[in-house]
Every structure is written in C-alpha cells, then in structure tokens.
Amino acid sequence: MYIFLSMLAITDLGLLIATIPTILGLFLFNSREISLNACFAQLFFVHSLQLIESSVLLLMAFDRFIAICNPLRYASILTPSRVAKMGLVFVLRSVAVIFPLPFLLKRFRFFRANVLSHSHCLHQEVMKPVCSDITVNNIYGLFITIVTVGLDTLLIILSYVMILKTVLSIASPAKCLRALNTCVSHLCAVLLFYVPEFSLTLTHRFGKGSSPWLQILLSYIYLLGPPLINPVVYSMKSEHLRARIIRVSIK
Predict the structure, then answer these.
(1) Tens digits of residue pLDDT in 14-70
(2) Interior CA angle at 223 toward 217 and 226, to 5°?
(3) According to the model, what pLDDT value does residue 167 have?
(4) Contact 47/145 with Cβ under 8 angstroms?
(5) Cα(2)–Cα(62) distance, rounded to whole angstroms?
(6) What is the mean pLDDT of the chain?
(7) Which residues of 25-49 are buried (b: 16+ CB within 10 A; e: fewer)?
(8) Which residue(s) pair with 130 in the sheet?
(9) Is 11:49 a contact under the CB 8 Å cutoff?
(10) 124 or 184: whose pLDDT is higher?
(11) Rounded to whole angstroms, how far apart are CA atoms 130 and 78?
(12) CATH node for 1-250
C-alpha cells in the first residue's frame, strides 16, 4: 500500500511541477505568453501524468481487492518486483498514447490570435485556435480517454463490486465495517480525480454553450485538487503516516 502511495505522491508532484510555473507566472508576474514548443511540452507532461495517476488509482483498487478478497495470498501476489513491473507497464502505456499528441498538433496552422482559457496547455484548449480540420485529433483524444481513463474507471468499479460482494458475506458487522474502512481514503481519491476529469471532458467536447469560467474552475480543481487533498486524506486515515507526521512536527 505504501509503495502505491509513494507512486501517487510522485505523480501528484509531477503534475504540480508541470503546471505551477505557468500558473505562478500568470498570477504573480502577469506573464501571458508561452512558446508553441513549450506549450506542447507542457501538454505532453500534464496529460501523461494524468493518465499515470489514473493507472495508480487502478493499482490501488487492485491492492484493496487482493487485501480484502484474498488476504492470505496478498504478500505472494503483490511482491515488490511485481508492483514495480505493473507500475512500469502503466507508465509506458501513458507515455505511448500521449506521445503522438504534440506531433498531431504541430502539423496544423494556428490563427494569429492564439488565446487559451487556462493558465496551462491542455489538448482540448490548444485545438481551439487551429484553422484546419481537427477531426483526427478529436477522434484520437476520445480514443485515449476510452482506452485509458474509461477502462481504468470500469476496472475500479468492478474491483469494488467484488469487494462489496466479499464484505457483505462477512458475518460480523464489526469486521465488515473495518474492511470497508480501509477503502475510504482510496474512494475519496478516486472521486476527487474522476469527477472533475469527466466533467471537464464533457464540457470541452459537448458543452459548447457552457460558461468558460466553469471550464477554468474544473481544470484547476482537476489539476490542483488531488495533489492538495490526497496527502490530507491519507494522512488522516493512516495511523502510521499520522504518527510519523506528528513526530516530525514535534521535532
């Protein structure tokens, strides 16, 4: 569990490193320009790290599934080497599917007035000033969402269905509640990540008449919410983390 938590923390830090410079530059120094190549680089890292975080949440759901549904084989199934291999596979998957996006955008011509709604570059936003047919980008972006975030969401839901099925078969209510309590932090992280993700995707693709302020708010919640809230949620729920934080604070 702590290996997965460290993976989640590293991913959240990566998202902050990829987005905070342009956000601070805008709000502190009124820096409102970014080169096209820098924008494409930020776009690549932001979307790659978003998909990696989705994968980490899926791995954490699998961790809870094994811990509750097959606890006696937990140590033999989730060995450190196997966890590392799964993490590497998901990192490579995320990088591989996002890698073509900057090159697909680079072949387009852009309007002279390239104004973005957000203080960071997102694929949906960068496509708006394009003065060419963006059907391929739209289809590929939707394909990425379905095979990564959509598939991860489906597997997380399936994991929790199996967890609920196992927990409800436990005769003791106290043991049932204790088993469910181990999933609370992960469920909070899942909701905090996926609800703004799907809301932002739907407003960009289908909410043509939606307020641009709503899109901006959702993008900030989506990018900055998990790195801010996840440490609080897991620190409050994990006795070992809470004790370590208190010990460090006292020192």
Answers:
(1) 988 988 888 888 888 877 788 888 888 888 999 999 999 999 999 999 999 998 888
(2) 110
(3) 83
(4) no
(5) 14
(6) 83
(7) ebeeeeeeebeeeebbebbbbbbbb
(8) 110
(9) yes
(10) 184
(11) 46
(12) 1.20.1070.10
